[in-house]
């Protein structure tokens, strides 16, 4: 996996070494949930910045990136082992596991059929909070509470 970063304001990769445990913990979380690295690993497809002219800058970049990704992996492992984030996400999207949800996901029902279904069953769904701030704080708990 290319483990480099870009500028979020630019929207593209700038080949900088990763230095954010916060961002990479979520990346490693998804990798672990998908079974982890079965072949390969991390590729620091990165380079030092133009202003980094000391011969040790490349060394610092690689060491810092390895430390960042190692800590991100430890955080991600705690997130997976605890299971709280998975549980909350599963609860949020549980409706997609219903018969109707599965029909929608599989493309087995058209929008017109869905509208007819809603009218026939007098559906009146109630808004439910996504609890985004709670989930963000949960992730901070994994990051900053030992």
TrEMBL record:
Report the record's Gene Ontology biological process terms: D-xylose metabolic process
UniProt keyword terms in alphabetical order: Carbohydrate metabolism, Isomerase, Metal-binding, Xylose metabolism
Primary location recorded for the protein, binned into one broad class: cytoplasm
Q: Which GO terms describe its molecular function?
A: metal ion binding; xylose isomerase activity
Tell me yes or no: is Metal-binding among this UniProt entry's keywords: yes
Which cell locations does it reside in? Cytoplasm
Q: List the catalysed reactions.
A: alpha-D-xylose = alpha-D-xylulofuranose
Query: From the record, what ranges are coiled-coil?
Result: none
In short, the EC number is 5.3.1.5
Record PROSITE patterns: XYLOSE_ISOMERASE (PS51415)
Spell out the InterPro entries in the cross-references. Answer: Xyl_isomerase-like_sf (IPR036237), Xylose_isomerase (IPR001998)
Q: Can you list the GO cellular component terms from the UniProt entry? A: cytoplasm
Oligomeric and partner information: Homotetramer.
Q: Which family does it belong to?
A: Belongs to the xylose isomerase family.
Q: What is this protein called?
A: Xylose isomerase
Record the organism. Answer: Cedecea neteri
State which gene encodes it.
Answer: xylA_2
